[in-house]
Amino acid sequence: xxxxxxxxxxxxxxxxxxxxxTPCEDSSYSLTRNGVSVVxxxxxxxxxxYTHARFGSKCAVxxxxxxxxxxxxxxxxxxxxxxxxxxxxxxIHSKMADLLVEHELDGLERLSxxxxxxxxxxxxxxxxxxxxxxxxxxxxxxxxPLTLPANGENASSTYFITxxxxxxYLRLIKTTTDNTHAFVxxxxxxxxxxxxxxxxxVRPVVARLAELASQGKExxxxxxxxxxxxxxxxxxxxxxxxxxxxxxxxxTPAPDFSALSDSKDTFERDFNDTMRAVQxxxxxxxxxxxxxxxxINCQNAPNSGKLEGENNINAESADGNGNKAExxxxxxxxxxxxxxxxxxxxxxxxxxxxRESVAEGSEIPKSPKMVPLWAFLLMTGxxxxxxxVLAVLQL
Length: 395
Hints:
Helices cover 46% and strands 18% of the residues. The chain is α+β, with helices and mostly antiparallel strands.
């Protein structure tokens, strides 16, 4: 059996907060229980409206660690990822609700923070990430990002676990420990120093930070804190808070540090290739699909109610009740006028509906059912027959 992973985590206050005489807003936490090892970090949001972000970040890391060490299998083997994401967010929000009461806050926004975590049970790995920061995988062959920073409209904005719709931005990764030596988690205060987004390059120093865990948790955290303070925090008078988490798999081969590259070709991104462009490209296809589904819905309409209606009308005609037959005919004409109007409106708005369907990323909506042609002809025939009977009786 493989030994338990070695976990290490540190959070250091940045010079920006020292100069402003404000506390560190980052939090980190690690826990091994029930055969599950979890390491988490969280970056509390900066800004005047995020008054208690440090409490939110601490709550988030502790909540996730407790939840995953108790229910790792439930989350890992659940096929509906949306359920996993929703439950994780709900659990964190529920814990944060107590903080609202304790600190007399007016909403979760005051507790805003990002969240990154990696949980390992045996050979299974469950990782999660919302917001900026970085999770790296260290393998015998080198370094690679497991999750990338997620920023909003600009580099200084991001997504928080406190959002009402945070489950839409929370990314979950289910994988295994195969070909893995360690996982390293970093808040943006460290990520900015070791990751080049233009090249998708993680610098070799991250692998060396991971290797500190081979000394054991206590010694690793001491050396890690000193290293981060010297090369990250003290590197700038305006440095941000810095957090690092390490999950080190003992007994696995480390990479050849001399072979790790500190350079890479710049990644060329097509900024015109956006999801909006994809949505607009799909509009004609979705419109065509709506028309097909509309025809299928008409063909598959239930026949039981129609047959019963036919029998009732035939019985009334046989009894000589011309008034009801005439009313049925008038209703038919009125219904047909409404149907024609409805069809005209459907044609006018079909393209808009298709565009909205694609933009919302929802399923193709079903078109309203129309009266089949045979039913219209039958009712029209009955109306003509009833009018003929009345004319004969008047003669």
